[in-house]
Amino acid sequence: MIGKLKGLIDSYGEDFVILDVGGVGYQVHCSSRTLQHLPSPGEAAVLSIETYVREDAIKLFGFRTDQEREWFRLLQTVQGVGAKVALAVLGTLAPADLANAIALRDKAAVARTPGVGPKVAERIVTELKDKAPAFANVDPAVVHLAGAVDDQRAPRPVADAISALVNLGYGQPQAAAAIASASRSAGEGAETAQLIRLGLKELAK
């Protein structure tokens, strides 16, 4: 199996690059994000490779980092997500942003991917929620709160405060982070109005 390729960029296709390695041109399929970051033809590049062997073809998928390749594999453990959809998701969200979106149950961020509807986005954030926090750079308290809100386990004042901030136009992840911080400041038993006030102060920083 091919795990890495180092060579010169020969040419680009719509969703692939031809990488010249010692005179052999390898066709490597990449996300749009990866293609945008690769150098001009004639320049050197290194790609982490995932090799798919089928009865009728061998297909190579290329990534700028091993972490991106790991996400490509993880995404395909979700029902209804194949290589094409996984590449599209990675073309829309960088690995760190994808990890944060899953950790915060931000279905809307994943659904921005062309070809990914709300149902598939929901499956991605639900089925990968236990794997994302290891990659995410989000405060664990925010991850916990986002999960509690999503599962309807959050205290009513907290859930209402987040809902109020979302209604004011803030994204769910922003609102959850602000209210998590507000809850820490106010302590247990804080009322909705107090949490909203503290959350807005947090967002204004």
UniProtKB/TrEMBL annotation:
What GO terms fall under cellular component here? cytoplasm; Holliday junction helicase complex; Holliday junction resolvase complex
Xref: InterPro entries: DNA_helicase_Holl-junc_RuvA_I, Hlx-hairpin-Hlx_DNA-bd_motif, NA-bd_OB-fold, RuvA, RuvA_2-like, RuvA_C, RuvA_C_sf
Q: Which Gene3D superfamilies match?
A: 5' to 3' exonuclease, C-terminal subdomain (1.10.150.20), DNA helicase RuvA subunit, C-terminal domain (1.10.8.10), Nucleic acid-binding proteins (2.40.50.140)
| Chief place of localization | cytoplasm
List where in the cell it is found.
Cytoplasm
The domain section of the record reads:
Has three domains with a flexible linker between the domains II and III and assumes an 'L' shape. Domain III is highly mobile and contacts RuvB.
Complexes and interactors: Homotetramer. Forms an RuvA(8)-RuvB(12)-Holliday junction (HJ) complex. HJ DNA is sandwiched between 2 RuvA tetramers; dsDNA enters through RuvA and exits via RuvB. An RuvB hexamer assembles on each DNA strand where it exits the tetramer. Each RuvB hexamer is contacted by two RuvA subunits (via domain III) on 2 adjacent RuvB subunits; this complex drives branch migration. In the full resolvosome a probable DNA-RuvA(4)-RuvB(12)-RuvC(2) complex forms which resolves the HJ.
User: What is known about what this protein does?
Assistant: The RuvA-RuvB-RuvC complex processes Holliday junction (HJ) DNA during genetic recombination and DNA repair, while the RuvA-RuvB complex plays an important role in the rescue of blocked DNA replication forks via replication fork reversal (RFR). RuvA specifically binds to HJ cruciform DNA, conferring on it an open structure. The RuvB hexamer acts as an ATP-dependent pump, pulling dsDNA into and through the RuvAB complex. HJ branch migration allows RuvC to scan DNA until it finds its consensus sequence, where it cleaves and resolves the cruciform DNA.
Which family is this sequence assigned to? Belongs to the RuvA family.
Q: What's the protein called, per UniProt?
A: Holliday junction branch migration complex subunit RuvA
